[in-house]
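> run fold Gfo/Idh/MocA-like oxidoreductase C-terminal domain-containing protein
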Amino acid sequence: MVAIREHRFPFLVKVHNWNRFNVNTGGTLVEKCCHFFDLMNLITGAVPLRVMASGSQDVNHLDENYDGKVPDIIDNAYVIVEYDNGVRAMLDLCMFAEGGKNEQEICVVGNYGKAEAFVPESVVRFGTRTNGREGVEQIEVHDDRIKYEGLHHGSSFLEHLEFLDAVRNHGERPPIASLYDGLLSVAVGVAAQLSIEIGKPVNMQDILKFGIDR
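> ok
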């Protein structure tokens, strides 16, 4: 089981607030949460088969108006993704949750044990079923290359370093994230948005008509 929670603040002001409407972005679960679906795909090492989601716009941007139109992007959702190796993953998104210590949490549980990661605490905890609660270990995670964390806690800087390295190697070393990785993460977001719209689970093969084999 893989669980990712993002409890954060609402979308910031953008250029002309372009991301306030689904027609411009594909929806919150596409435009923003595709990164979490990419993490799910990476952690599971498997192919997503089915997506089911529930979400709505309950709090944010309802008092905004652009050319007579009120924003329609969701601000909270639960998304479950089923994979071809039997793993299930869940995203818990809330964008009016400023009153918490951590903005992002990842929890991975298997038959051997459990691992958790917390941002911005930069803490990882892990333990085994055999050793139980008393055997849980905790480590603090830091990367000396990061001098200023910013809102993405240094990940944007590291991403640019990796991209620069791939360019300088003239394609001899492929990028960490491939074109396929990006496509699949966005497709999961599309399936989640559609699931909310129709109130039913969505098969990934209906989103990617050409197939999703790695």
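The two ends are 21 Å apart (CA to CA).
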